Write a sequence for this structure.
């Protein structure tokens, strides 16, 4: 009887110890952790307690990592840098303390940040993203999505957004009416046909070149900004607050076929269908 009880206790202890070990199937990822100060007991495994003890930055960039399974145990890190790897998926739903995420130059298809409400900066450029799932990320200020495969981008729930880089995607629309703090926007090389930035008074720099723009409204109360709106052959008129300023500013670059106007009536796309006979 005593032997049986002892055996049960030994087995229970073994199971308990095993349960405290973080599952890290990627050998490169695991070896990086084992060789670091994270592995405080210098054994051949990473314990849950060791992972939970890590705060601040966890740097894993440029390591040819294929699988980041196990990252969910690092619940107290504030920064994760896993850029320049071979990741096709990334689950950060358990990282509730995360403030900065750098995951550019991977093979990610989907990125879900809905559980990471403390995020301030997300850099996910040069992936294969077809979807980024955004929730109540009220603190997010910087979002980098350059050169992905996004056809839709909803930033309605990002009131603190200041810097948005979504150039080199397949976006057909972009609504920034709920992002009054945005000062830098690069949405060039997409499929946008219209862009309205009248509710973005803090805007300082806009790059919207190489789209399919037909309508561009920049009457946001100030035109003292950099604008790159060239290579939009169907954009004949740009609505601005101060036509004279824009025409003489060295910081505004548009196509030779486009012109500035301060009202809809002066823009050809706003009075489409009218002819001189209509006014006789």
């Amino acid at each position: 009887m005593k032997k049986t009880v002892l055996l049960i206790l030994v087995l229970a202890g073994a199971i308990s110890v095993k349960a405290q070990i973080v599952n890290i199937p990627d050998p490169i990822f695991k070896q990086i952790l084992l060789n670091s100060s994270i592995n405080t007991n210098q054994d051949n495994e990473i314990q849950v307690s060791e992972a939970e003890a890590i705060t601040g930055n966890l740097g894993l960039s440029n390591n040819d990592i294929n699988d980041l399974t196990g990252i969910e145990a690092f619940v107290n890190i504030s920064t994760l840098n896993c850029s320049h790897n071979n990741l096709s998926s990334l689950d950060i739903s358990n990282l509730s303390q995360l403030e900065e995420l750098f995951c550019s130059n991977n093979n990610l298809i989907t990125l879900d940040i809905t559980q990471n409400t403390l995020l301030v900066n997300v850099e996910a450029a040069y992936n294969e993203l077809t979807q980024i799932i955004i929730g109540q990320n009220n603190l997010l200020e910087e979002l980098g999505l350059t050169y992905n495969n996004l056809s839709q981008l909803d930033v309605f729930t990002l009131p603190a957004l200041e810097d948005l880089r979504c150039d080199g995607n397949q976006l057909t629309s972009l609504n920034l009416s709920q992002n009054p703090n945005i000062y830098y926007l690069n949405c060039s090389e997409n499929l946008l046909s219209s862009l309205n930035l009248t509710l973005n008074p803090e805007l300082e720099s806009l790059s919207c070149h190489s789209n399919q723009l037909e309508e561009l409204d920049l009457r946001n109360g100030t035109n003292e900004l950099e604008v790159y709106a060239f290579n939009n052959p169907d954009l004949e008129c740009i609505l601005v607050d101060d036509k004279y300023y824009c025409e003489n500013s060295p910081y505004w670059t548009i196509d030779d076929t486009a012109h500035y106007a301060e009202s809809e009536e002066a823009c050809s796309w706003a009075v489409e269908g009218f002819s001189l006979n209509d006014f006789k």
In short: The longest strand covers residues 77-81. Helices lie at 2-19, 27-34, 48-52, 243-248. The longest helix spans residues 2-19. Confidence is low (pLDDT under 50) at residues 1-17, 273-280.
